[in-house]
Amino acid sequence: MSEISLQIDGKEVAVSEGTTILEAARSLGIEIPTVCDHAQLSPYGACRICTVEADANGRTNLVASCQYPVEKDMVVRTKTEQIDKIRKVLLEQMLSHAPDSEQLVALGQIYGADRDRFEKESSFCILCGLCVRYCAEVKKKDAISFFDRGAKREIAFLPEIAMQECWDCKECFPLCPTSALQAAYVLTEALMTPSVVPTPSCGGSCGCK
Amino acid sequence: MDIGKIDQIIDKHDGEASSLIQILLDIQSENHWLPKEALTRVGEKLEVPMSRIQHITTFYKHFSLSPKGKHEVHVCVGTACHVRGAERILDTVQEVTGVGAGETDPDLNFSVETVSCLGCCALGPVIVVDGEIHGNVEQAETAAVLTELKQAETDEVMQQCACE
Amino acid sequence: MSRIKSPAELEAFRKEILAQRDPDKPCITLCSGSACNATGSGKVAAALELEIEKQGVTTEVVSRRTGCHGFCEQGPIVVIYPQGICYLKVQPEDIAEIISETIKKQKIVERLLYVDPNSGERATLEEDIPFYKNQKRLVLGSNRKIDPRSLEDYLAVEGYQALTKVLFEMTPEQVVGEVKDAKLRGRGGAGFPSGLKWDFARKAPGDQKYVVVNCDEGDPGAYMDRSVMEGNPFAVLEGLMIGAYAIGANEGYIYVRQEYPLAVANLTVAIEKAEEYGLLGKDILGSGFDFTIKVHRGAGAFICGEETSLLNSLEGKAGEPNARPPFPAIRGLWTKPTNINNVETWANIPMIINKGAAFFSAIGTESSKGTKIFSLVGKVNNTGLVEVPMGASLRDIIFKIGGGVPGDKKFKAVQTGGPSGGCLPEGLLDTKVDFDELSQAGAMMGSGGMIVMDEDTCLVDIARYFLAFLSDESCGKCTPCREGIRQMLKILTNMTKGLAKEGDIDLLFELAEATKGSSMCALGKTAPNPVLSTLKHFREEYEAHINEKRCPSLSCKALIDFYIDPEKCKGCGACFRKCPAEAIEGGKKRIHVIVQDKCTKCGGCHEACPAAFDAVNILSGVPVPEATPEEARAIG
Question: pTM for this structure?
Answer without folding.
Answer: 0.94
